[in-house]
Design brief:
By secondary structure, the protein is α/β, with parallel strands linked by helices. 41% of the residues lie in helices and 15% in strands. It has one domain (2-302): Luciferase-like domain (TIM Barrel).
């Protein structure tokens, strides 16, 4: 099992002037540690709750990934996950292509239906109903796959029309950068995973308690994977080729004893063929968090 790093906030010492240097040190430490992926959120306001107030620092996601591309050499780079409403799909395909070329073939497209109404309204971004957002998500997945192919002809959908799906240069990764769809909706999201995606991510862990009488933790992942397998069978998709990943919500493995317990907690996920667990650093020292992972978590999980 691999480890991913998901950076969710930038409220670090020295204010705005310290964000760039701290982010650079964190990314280099993660890359040197063999952490498989580095991701940031696709939000413009901070989320509240444990993440911090809405007016705390939040960077634009793809600009941040471009910065990280120049600082790292090995880690995959993506948003967890791109909100489908924030960028026109033709432009999104171009953005990810650019990231892939400049990073030497390390970009991925993480994408979902978007949900944060406050930042949509706050910044004047249209926020259509959920059903329409899923329609737009499916059309976006179709468009990016077309733009990452040899077909530079038109696209005519319900919500998007492209006269010319031209994309030069193409991404370095062929046939295209991995597409990761995030979420656990059984009727729509997991169908889109089966039809279009190379990877899937689900938020789970002890900090993501399920409602009474429903699965939680590894049991939740198992239940969702059963649904995904059924969708793959209907879509004619090879279930095994889809990479299964989780975003772990729970107390971070910040000490050696907690790291050992965390590795034990990951064993049921590994048995379900979850290939990557994504962890979030909280607090003012993300570099120290990564250094601890490098010594006490990354090598231990590699054996699962």
């Amino acid at each position: 099992m691999q480890v991913g790093l998901h950076i969710t906030g930038f409220s670090w010492p020295d204010g705005a002037a310290g964000i760039g240097p701290t982010l650079a040190k964190t990314a280099r430490a993660a890359d040197d540690a063999g952490i498989a992926s580095i991701s940031v959120m696709d939000h413009f306001f901070q989320l509240g709750g444990p993440f911090g107030a809405a007016d705390e620092p939040m960077l634009e996601g793809y600009t941040t990934l471009g910065y990280l591309a120049g600082l790292t050499r090995r880690a995959q780079l993506h948003l967890l996950v791109t909100g489908v409403t924030y960028r026109h799909p033709g432009i999104l395909a171009k953005v990810v292509s650019t990231l892939d070329v400049l990073s030497g073939g390390r970009a991925a497209l993480g994408i979902g239906a978007a949900w944060n109404e406050r930042e949509h309204l706050g910044l004047g971004v249209p926020f259509p109903p959920l059903a329409e957002r899923f329609e737009r998500l499916e059309e976006t997945l179709q468009i990016v796959r077309q733009m990452w192919s040899d077909d530079n002809g038109p696209y005519h959908g319900k919500h998007y029309q492209l006269a010319e799906a031209l994309n030069a240069p193409q991404p370095l990764q062929r046939p295209h950068p991995p597409i990761l769809v995030g979420g656990g909706g059984e009727r729509k999201t997991l169908r889109l995973v089966a039809r279009y995606a190379d990877a899937w991510n689900l938020i789970t862990g002890p900090g993501r308690q399920a409602a009474s009488g429903t699965p939680a933790g590894a049991d939740l992942v198992r239940a969702k994977l059963d649904v995904l397998r059924d969708h793959c069978q209907r879509e004619g998709t090879d279930y095994e080729r889809i990479e299964k990943t989780i975003l772990y919500v729970g107390p971070p493995p910040a000490t050696v004893p907690s790291a050992a317990a965390f590795v034990e907690e990951m064993k049921p996920y590994a048995e379900l063929d979850v290939r990557q667990v994504v962890l979030m650093p909280f607090g003012p020292d993300p570099v120290g968090f990564v250094d601890h992972l490098a010594s006490n978590v990354v090598p231990q999980l590699a054996g699962l």
